[in-house]
Amino acid sequence: xxxxxxxxxxxxxxxxxxxxxxxxxxxxxxxxxxxxxxxxxxxxxxxxxxxxxxxxxxxxxxxxxxxxxxxxxxxxxxxxxxxxxxxxxxxxxxxxxxxxxxxxxxxxxxxxxxxxxxxxxxxxxxxxxxxxxxx
Length: 135
Known about the structure:
The protein is mainly alpha-helical and 135 residues long. It has three helices and no strands.
């Protein structure tokens, strides 16, 4: 295990992820992380931290699908066993529910992932020492 250079202090991962999940800058916790629904701002409007380095890509979508399906499946089974609704009722209710849950969770998960990347100095968030192109 290698030690961090003396110029770099450790960044609290949990705090950065919570700030990101709340849609705030992982560095200061004040500025807005997103300029639009899922568009990460290039820089924090409060502290000026560069946020354009983030590379969340498809990770938030995969995690959202995983969580929504794992929450929805037992509820779907339980509601069918308890009330025996029609197939169309279940398709509509759980289809709309899955869409609403996914749209609500996507920014939260993406913000947390950006916070994790910032705290771990991934993809250029570490300054000059970690700015390897194509790494």
